[in-house]
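re the bet — no i am not wrong, look at it urself. input seq straight from the record:
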Amino acid sequence: MSAFLIRSAFTGFALWIATLIVPGLDFVGGSTTWEKVGIVVVVALIFGAVNAIIKPIVQLLSIPLYILTLGLIHVVINAFMLEITAWITRNTTHWGLEVDSFFWSAILGAIVISIVGWALALLLKEPV
């Protein structure tokens, strides 16, 4: 359980950094600081659930594209997961993650989230 919470915190931090860097990627809703932090946490949990449930299915179905593009389709799949998360939050709660366009906001956001997540994982990895 604690590993899930740590991963969700990292995801929330990576999403927040991506909204600061990428134009067209933003959190919507919340008037106070605590409400905005709560929105980031909820979006991170939804993003984690989307990555745990939908992403493996999409990856399995796109194995030929992985081979054809030498793995570059992974960035597009991550951007698609961002779009799904934005769609879920927009249509169920009217607050959450907003992605202006798939190309280039979602693509750049997926790249930034991957880089920030990778850097955070490196920082917390225990030396062998």
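see?? The helical segments are 2-21, 33-61, 63-69, 73-92, 102-124. told u. also The beta strands are 25-28, 96-99. so pay up
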